[in-house]
Amino acid sequence: MDTTSAIRLYGVGLGPGDPLLVTLAAVRALEDAALIIAPTSHARQVGRAEQVVRELLPDREVLRVPIPMDPGDVGVLARRRVVREFIQQHHLVLEAAGSCAFVTLGDPVLYSTFSLFVEALSAERIPVTPEVIPGIPAFLSLASLTTSNLLDNDERLHLVPGTAGVRAIRDALCDRGSAVVIYKLASNFAAVRSLIAAMGRQEGTVVGLELGTDQMQIIALADAPEAVPYFATLIVPVQRDGR
Ligand SMILES: C[S@@+](CC[C@H](N)C(=O)[O-])C[C@H]1O[C@@H](n2cnc3c(N)ncnc32)[C@H](O)[C@@H]1O
User: Fold this and answer.
1) Among 133, 168, 193, where does a domain finish?
2) How far apart are the CA of 201 and the centre of ligand 1, in A?
3) Where does the sequence pass through the membrane (predicted)?
């Protein structure tokens, strides 16, 4: 599929889910785009990102891309295929629009479906001019609610998805002068929790569930339930012994 003029494509980060945490730049991009596209797990279901758009711009229609949310469910290849099929079915709509905003929770450059979308457009040889509008990542939203000092001086940050496995998380936890953020916890939360306790890093560790929504909960790891949902983020703070 070859087109003559490039589609202006905004990747719009909407933050964790609270419309108050959406930037002015994001709102302007949504207003400017002729078409708004939002990922959702099921075609008939309003996804989180679409929910935020509806609260900000209730009159705008949203085109849904059904993408299984967690690679652990279906595998990365299947997710790629689903997005590519969507582009094949909808390329005329995208081209006619001339500009579109692909919305995503948090920030578009962090584990986001925006990258799958850009990749699929490129694979279909549909020229786009991409522009990323940053959003507040889930972990920074949790950090702002739980600490006034996530990192200081020469301290470090590790961001690890639970799906990377227990060994990757152990490696991050070994660096005691670092804060460790864990995303995508649902599949192995019990193992992650035991590991954090066994490595003596449970103190101050918090889990944020459904951040930015009415169902938001922030819980100390010791008090967390046995299982957590997909929208769960964990922060292990830096161990500042002797300070
Ligand atoms: C595909 S990643 C998306 C990350 C997102 N782009 C960001 O910048 O935060 C999905 C993971 O982000 C975390 N996450 C995103 N939104 C969240 C929310 N509202 N509450 C808690 N965790 C969230 C969860 O760990 C979830 O499994």
Assistant:
1) 133
2) 22
3) none
Nearest to 71 by CA among 189, 182, 192, 162: 162
Is residue 199 lining ligand 1, measured as CB closer than 6 Å?
Answer: no
> Which of 133, 160, 193 is the last residue in one of the domains?
133
Q: Which residues of 119-157 are buried (b: 16+ CB within 10 A; e: fewer)?
A: ebbeeeebebebebbbbbbbbbbbbeebeeebeeeebeb
pLDDT at residue number 43? 86
Residues 84, 151 share a domain: no
210 lines ligand 1 (CB under 6 A): yes
For residue 211, tell me if it sits in a domain: yes
Atom of ligand 1 nearest to the CA of 113: 1
CA of 181 to the centre of ligand 1 (A): 11
Summarised one tens digit per residue, pLDDT across range 71-126 is 555 678 888 999 999 999 999 999 999 999 999 999 999 999 999 999 999 999 99
* 243 inside domain: no
Domain containing 104: what range?
7-133
State whether residue 105 is helix, strand or coil.
coil
